[in-house]
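#lab-general

N.A. 3:47 PM
ok so I finally got the sequence cleaned up, no stray characters, all 192 residues accounted for. can someone with queue access submit it? mine expired

B.Y. 3:52 PM
send it over

N.A. 3:53 PM
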Amino acid sequence: MALTESWHLRSRSRECTATGIAFTEGQRIVTAIFPDPESSGYLRKDFCEIAWNQRAEDEDQPFSSWRTKFQPAALQEEDSRAVTKQSAEELLRNLVEEDQEHTENTRYILAVMLERKKLLRETDTQPTTGGTLRIYEHRKTGEVYIVKDPNIPLEQVEKIQEEVFALLSPQPEPEPEPEAEPEAEPEAEPKQ
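B.Y. 4:20 PM
back already:
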């Protein structure tokens, strides 16, 4: 797996990381992304506003954080089942999980497309030594995507968009090869 600083993080939790108390529908919560000391990635933690405001100043500081509203898991499951295999959402999810450096431009274009469709919302941007990371949250499921902004030159945007549209277009099913007809067995000569 390439270390290109793009990650897919789990969906929002059903309970507060600090208190363990279950969230209720519509409750304002704080989502925070922390560097993961055990990997080169990040960890997502969700907090109720009270627990977030009571965090000690000497606790680990998040890489990014934002406020959002909690949606119950039942709504999240319905939304995730509605995604088709060829959707931009599914393609982005797969490319982020594969984390191949050569798909960096495609991931960025897909994230921007989904943001324009109001499926993702950009919650933060963070400058790093490797470039700017854009943090997106799925509006319905709460999934978080960290996508590197590859600073695509304007003259290349159209070409990359065409590549993305080609990936999203239904691919024709390969035609099955005709079955070979069994060779006819020679007729047996009549016995005398």
